[in-house]
Model the fold of this input.
Amino acid sequence: MRLLVAVMLLLGILASPAQAAGTIESHYKVAGPWAVASADVGSAYKLYYPADLGAGGVKHPIVTWGNGTYAAPTDYPGVLNQLASWGFAVVASTDKTTGTGSEMIEAARYLVARNADPTSVFYGKLDVTKVGAVGTSQGAGGAVNTATKSGGLIKSVVPIALPAPIWVAPGDKFFVDQLTCPVLFLSGTDDGIISPHSAVLAYYNAVPGAAAKAMLKGAGHTEIRGTGGGYLGYLTAWFMYTLQGDSYARGAFVGSPPEINTNASWENAAQKNLP
Done:
């Protein structure tokens, strides 16, 4: 009997709930294959990127990061190093109010320009056609603004703990119904005041194109700080799927059902129009 079960598991006929729910997430929640280097660009930006840039002819996608209110890149070492370890060149504005998106746009354009600069370590090693935006809290709104105000530069966006409209300052207002790139809304079940599911659901429903959403159980508003908490696996998988064309990572969000929909650590997961 045990042999039969083992064979069925191997063939995918039978799967334990734990294996079915978190295999892809587990794969991407740990550091990736690239050693990480970091650098400061004056007082404007902090960079995190693969130390062996362009090894094997790889062109690295760009990710621009938006801090939460009054926070700095040094408050988010987990997520910034994580993305770099999976082959992304990450640029994080040091600005502590990133809600307009302007700082994030300029940061992304800074790295795009470095790709064309023969004196830069990034010269010819970045994929400037694959740029993503991610941020948390005020920076989540900034990520949306970055996607809608950058003239098509951004190809994928992840707002984390995106505030409900009542918390958004007039100058930081964003419009999810103007998004033209895939978007993944991530939030926590213990963030019911600033980023409740009712607000996230409304944002998700307003997106006209490709979108996904999910809530991490037990996560509060600042879960992404420090180590990155429980967000790292699916955040990384999303960018691997949308910016690096990773078919394995795609299975977290597309399938019958997508893995995230069956993961006991998440709830309220949904997807629409994903390629």
